[in-house]
Write a structure and sequence with these properties.
Elements (H helix, E strand, L loop, with lengths): L1 H93 L3 H50 L15 H16 L8
Helix pairs in contact: 1-2
C-alpha cells in the first residue's frame, strides 16, 4: 500500500511541479510583455514631460514679466498721485480767495481723473496682454501634448479650421435648422 501512495504522491508532485512551472513561465512572459510596453512608452512620457517643463518655464517667465510691468505701473501711479497732491497743496497756498481755490482744484481734479484713467488703461493692457500670452501658451502646450511636436512661437495649432471655418459651420447648421432664405428652402 505504501508503494501505491508513494506513486500517487510522486505523480501528484510531478503534475504540480509542471503546473507551477507553467504558471511561473506564463507570469514571467506577462511581466516581460508589460516591461516591454512600459519601455515603449518611456520616450513618449519623456517628450511630454519636456513639453510640460518648457511650458512651466514659459509660465514663470510670463508671470515675472507681468508682475514686473505691474510693479512699474504701480510705482508710476504712486509718483503721479504724490505729484498731484503736491500740486493741490501749491494751489491751496497760492489761492487768493476761496472761489479761486475751488476753481483751481476743480481743474486739477479733471487732470487727475484723466491721468488715473490713462493709468487704469495701461494696467488693463498689461493684464490683457498677459492673458493673451497665457491663452497662447495653454493652446500651444495642449497642441504639443496632443501631437507630440513642438509648436513654433507665435503660432497656434488651430489648423485650417480657424474662427472663420467655425462660423461657417455654425451658419451651415443654422441653415439646416431654419432654412436658407437665399435658396428659398425651408
Amino acid at each position: 500500500m505504501t508503494d501505491i501512495s508513494e506513486q500517487f504522491a510522486t505523480r501528484a508532485a510531478r503534475l504540480l511541479q509542471g503546473t507551477v512551472q507553467a504558471c511561473a513561465a506564463r507570469a514571467l512572459r506577462l511581466a516581460q510583455s508589460g516591461a516591454d510596453r512600459a519601455e515603449a512608452t518611456v520616450p513618449a512620457v519623456d517628450a511630454r514631460l519636456a513639453i510640460l517643463a518648457r511650458a512651466g518655464l514659459r509660465l514663470t517667465e510670463l508671470s515675472h514679466q507681468c508682475i514686473e510691468q505691474l510693479l512699474k505701473q504701480g510705482q508710476s501711479s504712486a509718483r503721479n498721485a504724490l505729484a498731484d497732491s503736491a500740486e493741490r497743496l501749491r494751489l491751496t497756498a497760492r489761492a487768493s480767495s476761496l472761489g479761486a481755490l475751488y476753481e483751481e482744484q476743480r481743474a486739477s481734479l479733471r487732470a487727475s481723473r484723466a491721468r488715473v484713467m490713462g493709468e487704469l488703461q495701461a494696467t488693463w493692457q498689461i493684464v490683457a496682454a498677459a492673458g493673451r500670452e497665457l491663452t497662447h501658451l495653454a493652446r500651444s502646450t495642449g497642441s504639443e501634448l496632443a501631437s507630440g511636436r513642438e509648436v513654433a512661437p507665435g503660432h497656434s495649432r488651430r489648423g485650417a479650421r480657424g474662427a472663420g471655418a467655425r462660423r461657417s459651420s455654425k451658419t451651415a447648421s443654422r441653415s439646416k435648422n431654419t432654412g436658407d432664405a437665399r435658396s428659398g428652402k425651408a
